[in-house]
Amino acid sequence: MGAGGLRRGRGLDGHGLPHGRADHVHGPLHRAPAGSGGSGRQRDGLGARPARARRGRPGPPHRDPHPSLALAARGAGRYGERTRGRPRPHDSRAGDRDPGHADRRGDAAHARQADQLPARGRGHQTRRDRHGAGSHRRVGPASRKPSRDPGRAHRARGLTLDLPPPTPPIHDDREVCLDGLPVPRVLGRVGRKGGPVLVLFGAVHGNEPAGVRAIRRVMPELEARADRLRGEVVALAGNRGALAKGVRFVTRDLNRKWTFEGIERVRTSDPASLADEDLEQRAILEQLEPVLAHAHEPVTVLDLHTTSGSGAPFCCMSDTLRNLRIGLGLPVPLILGLEEVIDGTMLGYLSDVGHRGIAFEGGRHDDPVTVDHHEAAIWLVVARTGLLPPGEIPDLAGHRRRLEAACQGLPRVVEVRYRHVVHEGDGFEMRPGFRNFDPVRKGQVLAEDRTGEIRAPMSGRLLLPRYQGQGEDGFFLGRVVPRSVLRLSRSIRRLGLDDALGRLPTVRRDPLDPDRLVVPRAVARGPLVDLFHLCGYRRRVDQGEHVVYVRRRQDRLL
Ligand SMILES: [Zn+2]
User: Which of 174, 215, 319, 447 could form a disulfide with 235 if both were Cys (CB 3.0 to 4.6 A apart)?
Assistant: First the structure.
C-alpha cells in the first residue's frame, strides 16, 4: 500500500506530525539492488526478495522464511511499478483511519460517507523507514527536494525480470452443479483493468455453497453497472470437487495449503500427479496469479464462508493495517489473529504478499439468511474499495442494516488467544448449545474427547465451536479488544513506534528477520505478550528456551 510516488501532506495530522511530504519508496517484494547484500533472486530463482537496504547503507542480511515469493513478486511488484509517480485511487494513510464504524445508524446519506474509503490526499503521512523495507521517507519543509535512492530505479527496472513463468494451465472438465446451475471455476468477471480489484471466493470449503449463491446474485447487478465500475471484480469457485460431494474437503482442507512451499510444489508439479485439493489449488492459482500480477494496487480478496453452528455473521483476517482498512468497514464482529494460529490459510498468504484478505462468515451453512449476509458483505466491500460510488449500489443502507441487526450486542473486535487442536481419532465432541462469541469462564467444560472433559483454559469468548466431523480446529477462545486499544494499535504501527520493541529489556529482534522478536520463555506472557499483539506480532513459535513472536510481513511494507 502506498506505493505511489510523492504525496502532499496536509499539515498537522491527527498524530501531531508537522507539515511535510512523504516520499514513498516501495522496495519490498521487488528485486533488490545488485550487490546490496543479497540480490532479489530467491533460492529457487523465481521470486523477489524484499529490498532491505536503508537509505545510504546496506540493510541487514535477510533470512527469508519463504522459499518462493512468486506471487508476491508478480502481485505486489507490479503495482509498485505501475503506480510509482502517478496518482492512486486511494490514499492508504487516509484509509487507515477508522471510518467504518462511526456509522451504525444505517441511514443512506451517512452510509454513503462511511462506506467509501476517504479520497487520497486527506490522510496523514508518517515516517516509516523501517528496517530498510518499504521505506517511507518524511521530507520536512526544510528539505523539499526528494532525496535520491540509488536502488529505486534499479528496483523499478528489475521488477518484471523477477516474474516467474505463469502457472501452466490444467485441464479441468469436471462438471459441477449447484441448484441445477453449473459452477465453473470463474463464476464471473466484470469491470475494467486499472482500478481497484476485488476477488470473491465462494465454496473454498465444499459444504459451504452460500457464497456461490450470493455471488450469483451480485454478479448480474455488477454487470448491469459495468460502465460505472472503477475497477474489476473477479469471482472464483473454491473447492469444486468438494462442492460436488457436499463435503468440506475431499483429501485435505483447501484453506490450509497456502504456504509458500506448498504453493511452489503445486504450481510446478506435473498436473497428472495432482488430485483433489492440489488440483483445486492449481486451478485457483492459474486464475489468481494473473489478477495479482496485473493489479495496480493491493487486491482485496473476500472469501465467503459459513459455519456449522448457527450464529451471527463475522469476519476474520490477519492483523495488518491494510486488512483493517476494509474489515472495519463491515458492521460485524472482527476476529483478529485466527490466521496467526492456523498455518496455510489462503488469506494469511495473501496478506503476506501484500494484498488484503478477509474471510466473511455469513452464518449457518444451510440458512437462507446466510446468503443475504454474504450478499450484504460483498456490496459493502464493493463500496469500501471504491469500485462503485455508494449511490450506485442497490440498497446499500439496507445491506448495512441487515448485518448490524444480525450482530447486535456482539463485541466489535475479538483477538484469538487460544486454539484447541483436534487430532484424528481424538473423539472430540463439543458440548451442545454453544454459539459463536458466547462468554465462557475459565474451567468451564466446553467439550470432551477420549481423555475426558475439555475445560476452558481461560475466560473469554468462545469462537468457532466445531459441530461438524471434519477439520482440526475444535474451538478457539478470544478476548475482546476495546476500540481504544485498537486505535492505539493502529497508531503505533502507522508511526513505526513498534520498532522500539526490539530495544526492550529481554527482547531481541532477529537480526536476520525484522519481523521476528525473540524473548526468553520465562517472560513470554502477560503484558509483554499483550504489547506484542498490539503491534501485530501475533504468531507464536516455540523454540527451546525461547519464544519467537512473528508479525505479518505486510505490516512493514506500508
Ligand atoms: Zn469455511
Answer: 215
